[in-house]
Structures are given as C-alpha cells and as structure tokens.
Amino acid sequence: MRIASFVLSLIIPLGIVLPVQAEQVLYCQEELATGFYKKENGSWVTGKFETTRLTIKFNDDYTKVQGIDNAPPWNCFASWLGTKPEFVVCSNPYQSGHTFIYNKSNRRFNRSFASTFGYVGDDANNNDSDTLTAGTCTQF
Q1: Burial of 123 (0-12, 13-18, 19+ CB in 10 A)
Q2: Which helix (H) or strand (E) holds 66?
Q3: Model confidence over 110-128: pLDDT tens digits?
C-alpha cells in the first residue's frame, strides 16, 4: 500500500503541472480547385472542380486527422523534415496519393487526390479524376 501511495504522490502533481493539449477542430473552406478528368472521347483534360467545405479534427499532437474524407483517421507528422514545424503533412493510409498539408501558422491547406485509376492508370475502364484543392481553415 505504501508503494502505491508513493507512486500516486509522484504522478498526481505531474498532471497538475503539465499543460493539457486538446484536439483541434477546424472548419475548412476550399477556395481553389483544379484537376484532370477523362472526357467521353477518352482524352484527358484539365478542369475546374467544385469547392467544398470540410470539418476536420486533429488529435492533440497533430499525428492523426479525421474529416478529410469518409475513411478512418489519416496519419500525419507535424514537421517538415524539422525545418517547418508549422506544417502538418497527412496521408490516407488506405489510399495512396491522397494527401492533406496544413500550415498551423496561416491556417492554409492543400488537399490532393491522385488516383491509380485516374490519369496514371489510364485504361479503358479507369476514369477517376485527379484533383488538387487549396483553402483556409478557421478554428471552432
């Protein structure tokens, strides 16, 4: 019993001293959208795509994000090779080519969807669009 009391006496003050970080919920509006799509005649062209709004949620250490699509949380790292700590770079672990880059300082983002069934994987049955969007987020 004395050991448990001693351990608790060490742990409880740490919880009071250490700052608690909370998840970050952001409302993001795309402002620019472009990409490639396949026309009925089979040729690929650039096009303007519709912009959307997203409600995303980063966990407290910016290593996971939800809300970019309907997939489970994406994986993120909160530094660009240690030189740009304000950048958060995220990717969908279930679909290669899907990325989300967020700047914590100016709250701008880029979102890209490059599909292996789009331009790169071009064949008769593949016509997914590849897109790049950019916008700004505000904190709830």
Answers
A1: exposed
A2: strand 64-66
A3: 999 988 788 887 666 777 8
